[in-house]
Amino acid sequence: MALRVPRSASIAVGKAARTLTRLRGGSGSAFPGLVVERIDPSFLARTLAQLPKGVVVVSGTNGKTTTTKMVVELLRGQGLKVLTNRSGSNFTRGVVASLLGEISLTGRLEADIAVLELDEAHAVHFVRAVRPRHSLLLNVMRDQLDRFGEIDTTAGMLRSIAQTTTEGVVLNREDSRVAGIAESLSGQQVRYFGLVPELRRHFPSDDELHSAITPDAGSAGGETPPRSGPAQPTTTPEGDGVPDGEEPVEPPGTGIISADSAGLPEADVLLTGLGTQRGSFRIGEQEVTTDLKVNGAYNTYNAAAALALVRMVLGEELDHQALLRTLAQVSPAFGRGESLTVAGAPVDLVLVKNPAGFRLGLSSFSADGVATMIAINDNYADGRDMSWLWDVSFDSLAAEGVAMVSGVRAYDMALRLSYDQVSIQAVEPDLKTALEAFLAAQPGQPKRIFCTYTAMLALRKHLAAYTDVEAFA
Amino acid sequence: MSSRSTQQIHVVQLYPRDMNIYGDYGNALVLQRRIAWYGYEPVMHSYDPGDEFPAHADILIGGGGQDSGQDRIQQDLLSIGERLHSLAEAGTPMLMICGLYQLFGHYFETRQGRRIQGIGLLDVTTYGTDTRLIGNVVAESDQFGQIIGYENHSGQTYLGDDAQPLARVVTGEGNNEQDPHEGARHRNVLGSYLHGSLLPKNPAVADFLIAAAVQQKFGDSLGDLQAPDTAPVSLTELTEKARRSAASRPR
Ligand SMILES: [Zn+2]
Fold first, then answer.
1. Range 169-188 of B in CB contact (< 8 A) with A
2. CATH number for B82
3. A404 touches chain B (CB under 8 A)
4. Nearest CA in chain A to B65
5. Homologous superfamily of the A7-203+248-329 domain (CATH)
6. Model ipTM?
């Protein structure tokens, strides 16, 4: 029989654990959450139920962190007190841990709304306990397949999030797997964010890959060719966890722009133009062009997603002028196009964790005049499978070459570049040694480091010796 | 004697649109480059459902896919099965990974007991399971030495009497959880569960496919690999180091 611990007791225990973790030099995120979760499983649901504007969930394969940060800042710009899981541990425990910092011992939560970034794998458990009032689903791409098995499984997880959402769902209309979730919903309001067709070429999709090796065709670029021929869903080799006939046949293709541009639903927010740190949007009926602190096509598209969600959450209450003022000030999340200055020269860190993300990173930022380093680790948080490196074309780096290749899987990366005939100046698996050599080699030259998650954590720690790096906690 | 650069080797990728998950593209790229570096002209073809089958096919490769991708290609594969059989019996080298490895066998039996017909080119059968075998693999082959890759499959495959295993697993599972076999071989047709991609870190396998094609078509044996110097160390040394670090990683 379950022992019910009074709420104030579980909060006190959690807060003590949090203090303890801090004292021991931990990040203070996962451990205290675990303690409370064990003691009082309904803690989350009960506490979050107090929020007057409920819980908002942001999920998808790529761009969750930056988009969540934008949504939070846009809502704060509207005068709301917003709770979020900024700690980077985007799991249920991380959420519990962030709550503990914002809660009084009597259990009162000092916030209007919670905006939570959720990993697809953990989101399903979370939304069963805490039903979000609104959700934003970004994309389904090849990511961490060694953990989730199949893209279709990931799409199914996002569908569960949408189905448990009580009021409204915002979907990426350009991603056919995400847009298709609308068909499984009833009762929830559904809105979309999207792109004008002219901008689609900035967003390579997973499906363009197969055309890349076609001979003499010039390959690179171009739209995903339209699919033809009816799918015949009669078989299931390489079985997944879905009983026969239950899984609706999803349109083929993944990535940001896998949907055919014809016949798309109307978008509430449409990205209509891209410039250098500038973006044009059609927000509702209004055309807006604004300066942005975020850079790259991909982050700008995430801004469209964030705008659509904020419009849905606030409805009539929205202060449009304040929204545009905040939009211009929103900055990218840690490691997502983040720029540091080392010895007077900019050093950009670009997080790469799957083929679509790496392709977006390469196409979003020009390599001209930039010294490039690539750091690839294969720890659990990075994904152990290196296959994905072969799904990215590195031709755009051929002109300048790559100055340094590093990380646990430096030689896998070097091999990948060699088969794309991209020249490499140095290979050094040790991140610290590699970083020092890379920074010393071309003083004054702008630099860019593409890195996997754990490589980025290590590099930021080493970069702190050179420059002010925002603490990651 | 004509220059080798006018001697073409045609590589056919089977179903790249639906069956190219987990980096199987790397296999096509490695063949394309190495064929050129051996002094021949690579001609790359894609074959997708409904396409006309290429008139020249000196090497065939295929990859893994989503369940939905396999649905789309299965009927088409059966329709070209006879052609693939005659190519295989003529000694044409082929490399089929994961999903297409399964469909090159006799059948795939789902957990519900439904049989999905393959082309039976390899004497293997596959059974759907609830266990997904995922992780780094190191295997030993008499012919190719150590084979290094990454597996991710829930179908488990068993060899019949007419198939040779490609390798014996040292780390990982390979074909199934029961026996130590990884992959299968019949004549010059290789089946394997290993992504990674397979060929970049296992150039012995790539060169086997190229050598077989060159021997078949021109009666040549392979000369020296003329890879350009684009890194501080040679391609051979990079490959060796990549193999060593991969083999040392946790599953
Ligand atoms: Zn596979």
1. none
2. 3.40.50.880
3. no
4. A238
5. Mur-like, catalytic domain (3.40.1190.10)
6. 0.95
- Residue of B9, B11, B22 to mutate, testing the A interface (most A Cβ within 10 Å of its Cβ): B22
User: Considering only CB atoms, which chain B residues are within 8 Å of A156?
Assistant: none
**Three-class DSSP labels, A276-305:** CCEEEEEECCEEEEEECCCCCHHHHHHHHH
Show me where the domains of chain A are located: 7-203+248-329, 336-463
Residue A76, class by beta-carbon neighbours within 10 Å (0-12 exposed, 13-18 middle, 19+ buried)? Answer: middle
Chain B contact for A387, CB < 8 A?
yes
Which residue among B22, B25, B195 sits closest to A213, beta carbon to beta carbon? B25
CB contact under 8 A, B155 and A239: yes
DSSP H or E run through A238: none
The mean per-residue pLDDT over the stretch A398-410 comes to 97
Task: Tell me yes or no: is domain A336-463 CATH 1.20.1270.10.
Answer: no
Listed by number, the residues of chain A in 424-443 with a beta carbon closer than 8 Å to a beta carbon of chain B are 424-427, 429
Range in A42-51, A110-119, A139-148, A252-261 the model is least confident about: A252-261
pLDDT per residue of chain B (251 residues) written in tens, 0 to 9: 445 658 999 999 999 988 877 778 899 999 999 999 999 999 999 999 999 999 999 999 999 877 667 778 999 999 999 999 999 999 999 999 999 999 999 999 988 888 999 999 999 999 999 898 999 999 999 999 999 999 999 999 999 999 999 999 999 999 999 999 999 999 999 999 999 899 999 999 999 999 999 999 999 999 999 999 999 999 999 999 999 999 999 98
Helices vs strands, H then E, count in chain A:
15, 15
Residues 15-54 of B with CB under 8 A from A: 16-18, 20-26, 28-30, 32-33, 42-46, 49-50
Phi-psi region of A26 (alpha: psi -120 to 50; beta: other; left: phi over 0): beta
Of residues A406, A412, A326, A284, the one with CA closest to residue A77: A326
More confident residue, B100 or A209: B100
A61 Cα to the center of ligand 1, angstroms: 20
Q: Which of B238, B240, B249 to mutate to test the interface with A (most CBs of A within 10 A)?
A: B238
CA distances to A89, A253, A306, A310, A312 from A316, rounded to whole Å, are 34, 37, 17, 11, 9
Can you give the pLDDT at residue A294?
79
d(CA A60, CA A157): 9
